[in-house]
Amino acid sequence: MTRQKLELTWVGKEKRPKLEPRILLEGPKKSYHAKSRVTENDIFDNRLIFGDNLLALKALEQEFTGKVKCVFIDPPYNTGSAFTHYDDGLEHSIWLRLMRDRLEIIRRLLSEDGSLWITIDDNEAHYLKVLCDEVFGRACFIADIAWKRRDGAPNDRKIGSTYDHVLVYAKTRIGSAKKTLAEEAFNLMERTEKADSQYQLYQEPFGYDERGPFRKVDSTGNAKGGRFVESLIYPVTNPFTGKDVYPRKGRCWVYRKEEMLAMVADRRFFWGKDGKATTPMRKLFKSEAKPGMSAPTIWDDVGLNQHAAREIELLFGEKASFETPKPEGLMKRIIQIATNPGDLVLDSFAGSGTTGAVAHKMGRRWIMVELGEHCHTHIIPRLKKVIDGEDKGGISEAVNWRGGGGFRYFKLAPSLIINDRWGNPVINPEYNPAQLAEALCKLEGFSYAPSETRWWQHGHSSERDFLFVTTQNLSAEALQALSDEVGSEQSLLVCCAAFHGVSAAQASERWPNLTLKKIPKMVLARCEWGHDDYSLNVANLPMAQLEEPEPAARTSKVRKVISGQGGLFGEDDT
Questions:
Q1: What pTM was computed for the model?
Q2: Of 35, 90, 109, 276, which sits with the fewest C-beta atoms within 10 Å of its C-beta?
Q3: Domains of the chain, with CATH numbers?
């Protein structure tokens, strides 16, 4: 009997955006760095990106594929408030498709031992779980953590939720093993006061054990695996009374006899204050415990939404404008478990900037993406306070934060291709030559690396394969000069407005080290040009954008451009 693969289906699932891999433009005036180093480990090359987060993820893909250790996202919960123009079925389908598109890129960005952490509520949690199973593989599911976000249930319903879900996924599973590479790389959770309080000093007939505080655990049970094992019933001599004791009826010891007797000899059992206990308790010493502890799946000790709101209020002296900000304690635990100092953390739904602030204080590199204007009104001022050491709230005291480091601010470049006033697709005039070269490098899979000595080298894909971009019409003489300079041991992709004096077939035969492509013809079919917003705030998305046939006049103009008859860089270019 064969098992069919179960998949989540929804209206429009087969539709996938042809994303434009845009370049990032740095805004030095909005970038910020500490005036001096505070420690040798200060990190300055963090990135804050302003723009649509799906396009931003695509923009990061070439440089950061396989390099992100931890992704945390707090996407819109799809409660219906953002989808007032759509019925429930369509809104749900839109949300799933937009999440799927992001999750697929996020998976590619993660390192092999990387992990994804998503906060979500009951409204979409279970559908999101199945969607993540499909994108990451069910075997890469790690946990569904319940994070307590509020103290009491809301008064507007008979049963009110006080928890959010935190879904945790790994990038890679270890062969047929149950564990994933991410789990192998996880750190233990910091010990809590509650956990440490279980260890106490207990008086015994000989006084107090010199090995220090311990906690007591039962030494009997139905044996490991929940089975009763008769061979694990044997006498153990109480060292204080000299009497033999047995497990209670229906129980057995949980240790083999030789192991049990060795532990008795090493005083690793507690026989009561007077030494007369008939069932000893195993001592687990604090001094021998792990430096941390395994994380539970219920987190009620990392702060609430109201604590996060208070953190923001203290930073800005105003009531928080974010309905459900995440507390720094929650982010601290996630980052502490999933990463080590110097690792890269990504948050593509930056919100109030908590992820970057906490990652910065904990010595991790970070990338955040935010489309809303609060990127400028809240995130940047918040990060400046962190860098200047003026943020005394959140986890600052716990990690002894004193400031330092910095970040670089970027915005997404505009679309490379726009339409002129006649509807002809042309290169966006906002692009300067360097930006055009960088954009074409990204589109062709080359690394943008202009050479100071080779005027024709704008990018490379290997030590011998290069790319050259020019807006000029190249003659056969110019192409011959290029071929001579490149040499027979190297290859050059030439992206030019046009070439004349030779056909494409003749050029390929005459200059085998050159590959010629015309712009913008070479990229017209690659992407959805001019699409600037794929946001999950879906007020501007779908229904009005259902596919419609193009007007005949426009179609003919596009064909003219593709065939080389249309304009290239502007309406006057003939």
A1: 0.85
A2: 35
A3: 27-191+295-412 (3.40.50.150), 195-290 (no CATH), 417-562 (no CATH)
